[in-house]
Amino acid sequence: MAARIVLVKRFHCAHLNAKLSTLLTGIRRCSALSYSRSHEEFTSKRVRRKFIDFFKEGYEHRVVSSSSVRPRGDPSLLFVNAGMNQFKPILLGCADPRSEMASYRRVVNSQKCVRAGGKHNDLEDVGKDMYHHTFFEMLGNWSFGDYFKVEACAMAWRLLTEEYGIPAERLYISYFSGDAANGLPADEETRQIWLSIGVRPDHVLPFGMKDNFWEMGETGPCGPCTEIHYDHVGNRNATSLVNADSPDVVEIWNLVFMQYNRESNGSLRALPQCSVDTGMGLERLVTILQGKRSNYDTDLFTPLLSAIHQSSKAPAYQGRAGEADVGQVDMAYRVVADHIRTICVCIADGVYPGMTGAELVLRRILRRAVRFSTEVLQAPEGALASLVPTVAHILGDAYPELNTESERIMDLINQNEAQFLSSLKQGRRVIDRTLSNMDKDSAVFPASVAWSLHRNLGFPLDLIDLMLEERGKMVDKKEMEVLEDEYEKLRFQSEEDDEDRTDQLDLHSLAELQSRGVPHTDDLLKYCYSLGSDGHYVFEPCRASVLALYCEGALVSEVHEGQCCGVILDRTSFYAEQGGQAHDQGYFTKDGLQDVLFPVNCVRLAGGYVIHQVTAAETLRTGDQVHLHVDEARRLDCMVNHTATHVLNFALRELLGPSVSQRGSHCTASRLRFDFSVKGSLSISELQQVEELVQNIIRQNAEVHIEEVALSRAKQIPGLRTVDEVYPDPVRVVSVAMPISDLLTSNTAGQSSVELCCGTHLLRTGAIGDFVIVSERQMVKGISRIIALTGDEAKKAREAGHTLQEEFESLVARVGVASVPSIPAAQRLSKEIGLLMNVVDNTPIPQWQRRELQTRLKAMQKSSNTAFRKLEIKEAALKAEELLDKHSNKTVLVDFIQTDSISVLMKTVLQLSKSSPDSLVMLFSHLRLSGKVLFACQVPKGSTGGSAIEWALHVCERLGGNADGSNDVAKGVGNAAKVKDVTEILHWAEEFAHKKIRNSPG
Predict the structure, then answer these.
(1) Cβ atoms of 143 and 114 closer than 8 Å
(2) Which helix (H) or strand (E) holds 613?
(3) Which of 203, 353, 405, 545 lies in disulfide reach of 348, CB 3.0 to 4.6 Å?
(4) Shortest CA distance to 602 belongs to which of 649, 566, 655, 555?
(5) CB 104 within 8 A of CB 60
């Protein structure tokens, strides 16, 4: 047996050597290239281009553009943080078989990545060293079921040593050493490949799971990896520094061999097909090729550092760190240079500073950049935005959206900077006020206040620490951790609540379906409907066969009554959620059992299979024949709202111009939601005009043209609207009013609504019926969200708006005819206004009308409040005059007055104190119905006879209740039930005041 294993190993090595010989011709001569010359040749643009061209021209890789840093349909990520993110559908086996992505075999690209927040978070490290970044570019090549370890290693070695001319003796290789707990052997195959290439044995090093086994997440595709490390020093043996966090020996390229899937139970299972996923940081590679030791000394950053210097009052960048970096000036340079790149890329990709998720992280990054720019570098307001053209110059060739979005990026930076600088002033006041109220001997600042500054005003935590350190204080870190944990729990709970519990096919079940030859679901019947002669929509019936059942994580042959399962049919008329349109609902019936309904709760798409989430009403088996019954009313309402969404998109662009860009949409049976880029909220006039444009198209009853077109041709249609999605090929083109054949031959853009869309739509716009925007607000600066209603719901909103308008006019009329009101009448009016404002705020009515009513009601409330205050002042003056006649020349004036308003009580006290400035004044009011006693007091400024708050608190001791105020003025409320006779209160109050006066010094 042992002899046989030796023979197999010899055969395998011979096979490897034969395979490598054709790939490695000329590699060993590469070390002779002039490495010093490469320093001058390799600009960052040339390095990126050479990487792409090497795989494209030399190894037939398809070039795929970088995806947006906003993850496509992946709630597990805040940002795209690795090159493989956009290819997860392929690795998970769920790519749409009709999409271009499904045809990928060999791919190369440079992917924009952001690591700030979530699992991969480098934010707090940025600036402290020379290599951490929040934004970076990941160069990568992929093989999906094509080449594997031999080719991946050989290509990487040839590119680094021959094309880039990096000396082989400076490169060290790590490989997976195995893991007994997971039952994984050492990756001797990879080790042998590197040795066969010619890498010295002492440069090929084994490491365990932590360093050389890559996993996508807690579950999903994973496998051993081999990393290439570079020694910046050279002419030595640096094996001890590999994977030792040494700045001298750094990892530059990771080659991951996807061989396994991590199951939900923690076990590993071999993948149906093996893939290669590699990632190399452009910034580190450029640093090596330009002969630098810091990423910030390369041409990716030096123009930015120069621009920062020109716009600030700081000395020029020196590249210092740690204690040598006096005043953290160089750290500030690095922070601003890194963060402005991240800000530009995120905003260009539609991530704007906000209050949740990725938007909140970007808000913190921007505010951190503002702080270092204004406080450390002493740059004027606006300096940060002035760096945007430099970022576009450095990165715009690779990512042209930075050029087209520059103006929007600058506007948003300036708006957010001004807002933050205002918040800084407010925050400093909060800190000062909190410190003044603290025990002077306490060094611990309340964590709740610090957390509020961080969460609500956007203060970076390190800024709070710095500001407190200057005052000799610190935040209670343990309490802060508790607050952060509570916030994270609430956030994760919210995310879990939002998740759909639909049974989704796992990777292996998808592979099993494919291996069985189970055909993808034919779902074209979802588009099969027509307008009947009576004007009603007619949906074609559908009879189908059960091809597979998925229950509790596995494919099964049958399910029983009460079980929730995923059902895959050969054909379906149900619409699976995609393209922003909600899924269909309805039910199945089985042949011969037409009275037994199988409710369809949810419909999803995975890897070309439509999965119907069904609750079994009785036994259901593969092979059963079923009849499908779509909830036609719900479907039609979704169609109405989806077509209305397209018309709305067109109307916004018609009114506001081509800069309007869709940032998301979702249409259900009850409403539509549309997010779009715009500088500020729409005006009342603009809201009215958008509604009118949409209604014009509804009144035209325009035909909706739908046609499948080759993706490449469709993208040439002038004025075509697209979003960041992977489209199938061919793709459905939806055009309102203009035939698609005309669009394909016309050069005129913008004359009709035309979009790529997989959703279901009306055949004519008239069925929308009516359209009302019931909400429009800025989600974050630069992105607005519209909520709109259609049909009967829109009509109801109009009627509700008309009713509220009539109520408002009635209120105006009553105010206009009223004589000089009394305080109770003014209070009733103010309450009426407040109630109507609340109804206006919360009732679905046209948004333009809501804004009009809100403006007029606020003006009315302001006028009412002014009149009310005048009445109170007048009443207080009368009461004060009566009391002065009654208590002339008293040093202590204590009495009851009749009022149920603490405000009138306070105003009367103030009037008395004004007329008798040397007197101590306290007034009470007994509210007999409630048994409460209101009181207010004032003492002369600088009085040595005690303070007003002390006087009020003394009364509270006898009456119970509470009081608040200052040394000069105070107020409170007590309980008359505490005393037999309320007049006793006057005696206590007067006695206390006289005692204080007698005992006062001098």
Answers:
(1) no
(2) strand 609-615
(3) 405
(4) 566
(5) no
- H helix or E strand, kind and range, residue 173: strand 171-176
* 12: Cα within 13 Å, side-chain hemisphere: 13
How far apart are the C-alpha atoms of 733 and 709, rounded to whole Å? 7
- Other Cβ atoms less than 10 A from the Cβ of 751: the count is 16
Alpha-carbon gap, residue 153 to 228, rounded angstroms: 10
Q: What sign has the CA pseudo-torsion 966, 969, 975, 978? A: positive
pLDDT bin (cut points 50, 70, 90) of residue 163 is very high
Q: Which helix (H) or strand (E) holds 38?
A: helix 35-41
- Residue whose C-alpha is closest to residue 968's, from 939, 946, 990, 944: 939
**In the structure encoding, which two tokens stand for residue 520, read together?**
């993808």
For the chain, give the number of residues: 1002
Is the Cβ–Cβ distance between 101 and 726 less than 8 Å?
yes
**Beta bridge partners of residue 613, listed in sequence order:** 566, 602
DSSP-derived letter for residue 314 is S
Q: Report the DSSP beta bridge partners of residue 543.
A: 627
CA distances from 839 to 84, 688, 844 (A): 50, 21, 9
Q: Which two tokens stand for residue 303?
A: 């123009």
- Token look-up 């934010």 returns 123
d(CA 79, CA 59): 30
Entry pTM = 0.76
Please report how the helices 461-469 and 406-437 are oriented relative to each other, as an axis angle in degrees rounded to 10.
Answer: 40
| Higher per-residue pLDDT: 593 or 569 | 569
CA dist 895 and 891 (Å) reads: 13
> What is the arithmetic mean of pLDDT over 689-706?
96
From first CA to last CA, the distance across the chain in angstroms is 112
Residue 927 corresponds to which tokens in the numbers above? 């509210």
Backbone φ and ψ of 822, nearest 5°? -85, 170
Reading the block at residue 121, the tokens are: 């978070």
Instruction: State the DSSP H helix or E strand holding residue 569, giving kind and residue range, or none if neither.
Output: strand 564-569
Question: CA-to-CA distance for 216 and 221, rounded, in angstroms?
Answer: 6
